[in-house]
């Protein structure tokens, strides 16, 4: 179910799709601390993942003379690493909340498996941040992405569903 694709491909494929995410408002319930799943994803899960994915990254830049410059970014201060570890802890809490009745109700068993997978991988993510290991952060980031997309494949967000036909042919 969870496919391990080359990391860079994942990262490139992810952002344009998620950029399509739009907002809609639905009524809130008491057992849904972050609102609907859609609101929770848009307001909590995605921004938290962005902190994580943005921490260690590679960027290619085209110089005016045509040369391609590769740049690597990673946290530099203890404070930046701590922020990263905190994002990973927050993702663990969100993963637990996804397993609560409010969010899991009406879903299949696989929902719990995916949400638990997000918890597990976020623990690894926290460890990578605590170890201040940029390679591990990058690698675990790819696994985090695979867990997100595994769940989205079974429970497609409306915006991704429309694009699913295209995605499957690649
Ligand atoms: C346990 C299942 C599950 C996991 C794990 C999961 N998602 Fe989602 N996600 C959903 C569902 C279901 C929706 C569709 C919600 C809707 O449109 O009603 C969704 C929708 C989204 C959306 C669209 C929100 C919008 O504004 O419409 C984004 C962005 C998103 N998820 C990001 C992520 C990221 C990033 C991760 C991993 C860090 C992740 N999700 C992990 C189930 C999951």
List the main descriptive attributes of the protein structure presented here:
170 residues; mainly alpha; two-stranded antiparallel sheet; 2 strands; disordered N terminus
Structure in words:
By secondary structure, the chain is mostly helical. The chain has one domain (7-12, 38-154). The chain has 7 helices and 2 strands. It has helices spanning 7-19, 37-55, 78-98, 101-104, 109-130, 134-154, 158-168; strands at 57-62, 68-73. The chain has a two-stranded antiparallel sheet. Strand 1 and strand 2 (68-73) form a beta hairpin. Helix 2 (37-55) runs antiparallel to helix 6 (134-154) and helix 3 runs antiparallel to helix 5. Mean pLDDT is 84; it is low at 1-28. Bound molecules: heme C. Heme C binds at residues 18, 21-23, 37-38, 41-42, 45-46, 49, 98, 111, 114-115, 118, 144, 147-148, 151-152, 155, 157-159.
């Amino acid at each position: 179910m969870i496919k391990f694709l080359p990391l860079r491909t994942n990262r490139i494929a992810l952002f344009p799709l998620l950029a399509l995410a739009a907002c809609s408002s639905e009524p809130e319930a008491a057992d849904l601390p972050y609102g609907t799943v859609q609101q929770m994803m848009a307001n909590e899960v995605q921004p938290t993942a962005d902190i994580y994915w943005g921490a260690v990254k590679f960027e290619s830049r085209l110089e005016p003379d045509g040369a391609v410059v590769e740049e690597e970014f990673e946290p530099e201060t203890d404070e930046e690493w701590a922020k990263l570890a905190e994002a990973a802890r927050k993702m663990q809490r969100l993963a637990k909340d996804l397993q609560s009745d409010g969010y899991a109700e009406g879903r299949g068993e696989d929902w719990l498996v995916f949400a638990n997978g997000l918890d597990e991988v976020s623990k690894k993510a926290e460890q990578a941040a605590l170890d201040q290991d940029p390679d591990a952060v990058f690698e675990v980031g790819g696994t985090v992405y695979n867990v997100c997309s595994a769940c989205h494949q079974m429970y497609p967000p409306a915006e991704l569903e429309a694009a699913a036909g295209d995605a499957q042919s690649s």
